[in-house]
Amino acid sequence: MARTSSRSRKPIRFGDNGGPPLDDPPLHEPEWGKGEIGRYFDWRTAYRKAWKKPPAIALRRQERAEELGLTYEEYTLEILERGYFPQPEHVAAIIARRPERRKAGGIVAQSLKGLRSKRSDA
Predict the structure, then answer these.
(1) What confidence tens digit (pLDDT) does each residue in 45-101 have?
(2) C-beta of residue 112 within 8 angstroms of C-beta of residue 62
(3) Closest CA to 97 of 64, 75, 65
(4) I need a labelling partner for 75 at 20 to 30 A (CA). Which of 15, 25, 94, 119 fits?
């Protein structure tokens, strides 16, 4: 009959003292990967600066994006990538790029609607 230890629910085998495994743990890879540390922090700062806007600007962009049928992130991404404010004639091209962004793991269909309702309730 195999007993189970209280810490781990694996059955205790004959000769097992309940200690840690003797295999080497996987090597830790830092958050910035194998590249230069400075470049990682430069990009992280630039990303935060680009996406962090005052609430008034963010809400105005959200309203405009909803009017066009886009998400806040898609609308803002067009401003950041292309340097113009999307107009109704650009919406079809932006929506056509959704599958490409989804495949690449990028921003597709997130929204600030929940954020707006939380702020209005407060």
Answers:
(1) 988 888 888 889 999 999 999 999 998 888 988 998 888 999 999 999 998 988 887
(2) yes
(3) 75
(4) 119
